[in-house]
């Protein structure tokens, strides 16, 4: 054992005492071997001689190529000793380990928040600086995170590559598909802490919570209106700016909201997805369908459903009284969310 230790010590000593005669012409670094210098020079010249055998990407260092190849092979050699998670990169395992140790070494300069990952800190800092480094090549929008830009680009390309295996519907993002799948399973993981209601999406719960708190923190800069959700404010602002982002592919009409476009397109396609289970009638909009149910003879002994939310009542006058809660200053309250 002593001999092995001595040999290792000699190797370490050589690495420190070796003359570094190979000088980089771009910076002040020097190296003991010509091959090591050549590898370093690629960081300046951006020369990429190592090609991936699965795709057309190339790399300057073998270690980068090996890391990239794992995205194709699915290999995850770095396994957490405390749980069953595994990672393709060593640095990802190091970041993950901080979840177990509680170590948050990256501190925000603007507030007292700390983070276990430098990338998360960088993203957080942009909430203070207002920096949006990821720019859309189709319009003038910019984003704090590249994932947000990727999701936004789909609104231009119209690509829907995530398909539901139960009904065949396609979605532009995996998050939208996951949300849709809950309509099949009936899962409602987001539960209101004030009442017994539960929701399939976090955004729906957030919107619902406004009915309890009454808070409307998002104020319009053009008028006195305020909203419970920032998305609702964004949609409202289009009524001032005139931005109609949703264009009909059948005619020259455009709309402020996506659900308005969907409803309009049905006037071209004649699609009526809302079918009555008591008769052979079908309707293009959910509003018309609920109105039919409430006013027809089918509803005898059944409930009257509100067209603004999912509440229902045993008598029509109870429904009328409830609908007042959806008005603002005795005017109908326009709801900014997509019809199902």
Written overview of the protein:
- By secondary structure, this protein is of the alpha+beta class.
- Among the domains are: 53 residues, Double Stranded RNA Binding Domain (2-Layer Sandwich); 61 residues, Double Stranded RNA Binding Domain.
- Helix content is 42%, strand content 14%.
- The strands form twelve sheets. It has a two-stranded antiparallel ribbon. Strands 3-4 form a two-stranded antiparallel sheet.
- Strand 19 and strand 20 form a beta hairpin.
- It is elongated and about 95 Å long.
- GO terms for molecular function: DNA-binding transcription factor activity; RNA polymerase II cis-regulatory region sequence-specific DNA binding; zinc ion binding.
- InterPro entries: Znf_C2H2_sf, Znf_C2H2_type.
- Pfam families: zf-C2H2, zf-C2H2_4.
- It is found in: Nucleus.
- One of its GO terms (cellular component) is chromosome.
Write the layout of secondary structure elements.
Elements: H1 2-17, E1 22-23, E2 30-31, H2 34-45, E3 50-51, E4 58-59, H3 62-73, E5 78-79, E6 86-87, H4 90-101, E7 106-107, E8 114-115, H5 118-129, E9 134-135, E10 142-143, H6 146-157, E11 162-163, E12 170-171, H7 174-185, E13 190-191, E14 198-199, H8 202-213, E15 218-219, E16 226-227, H9 230-241, E17 246-247, E18 254-255, H10 258-269, E19 274-275, E20 282-283, H11 286-295, E21 304-305, E22 312-313, H12 316-323, E23 327-328, E24 331-332
Antiparallel strand pairs: 1-2, 3-4, 5-6, 7-8, 9-10, 11-12, 13-14, 15-16, 17-18, 19-20, 21-22, 23-24
């Amino acid at each position: 054992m002593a001999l092995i230790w001595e040999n290792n010590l000699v190797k370490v000593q050589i690495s420190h005492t070796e003359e570094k005669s190979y000088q980089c012409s771009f910076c002040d670094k020097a190296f003991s071997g010509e091959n090591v210098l050549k590898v370093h020079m690629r960081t300046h010249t951006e020369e990429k001689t190592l090609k991936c055998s699965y795709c057309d990407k190339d790399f300057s260092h073998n270690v980068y190529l090996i890391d990239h190849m794992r995205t194709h092979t699915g290999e995850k050699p770095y396994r957490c000793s405390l749980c069953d998670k595994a990672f393709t990169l060593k640095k990802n395992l190091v970041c993950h380990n901080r979840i177990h140790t509680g170590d948050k070494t990256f501190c925000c300069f603007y507030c007292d928040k700390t983070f276990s990952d430098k990338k998360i800190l960088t993203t957080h800092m942009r909430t203070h600086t207002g920096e949006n480094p990821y720019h859309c090549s189709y319009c003038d929008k910019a984003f704090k995170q590249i994932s947000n830009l990727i999701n936004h680009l789909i609104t231009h390309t119209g690509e829907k590559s995530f398909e539901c295996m139960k009904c065949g519907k396609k979605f532009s993002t995996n998050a939208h598909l996951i949300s849709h799948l809950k309509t099949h399973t009936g899962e409602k993981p987001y539960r209101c802490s004030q009442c017994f209601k539960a929701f399939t999406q976090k955004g729906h719960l957030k919107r619902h919570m406004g009915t309890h708190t009454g808070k409307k923190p998002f104020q319009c800069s053009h008028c006195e209106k305020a909203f419970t959700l920032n998305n609702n404010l964004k949609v409202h602002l289009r009524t001032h700016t005139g931005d109609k982002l949703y264009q009909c592919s059948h005619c020259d009409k455009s709309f402020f909201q996506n659900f308005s476009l969907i409803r309009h397109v049905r006037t071209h396609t004649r699609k009526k997805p809302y079918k009555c289970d008591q008769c052979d009638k079908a309707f293009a909009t959910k509003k018309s369908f609920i109105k039919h149910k409430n006013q027809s003879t089918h509803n005898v002994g059944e409930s009257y459903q509100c067209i603004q939310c999912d509440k229902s009542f045993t008598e029509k006058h109870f429904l009328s009284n409830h609908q007042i809660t959806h008005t603002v200053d005795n005017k109908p309250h326009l709801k900014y969310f997509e019809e199902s």
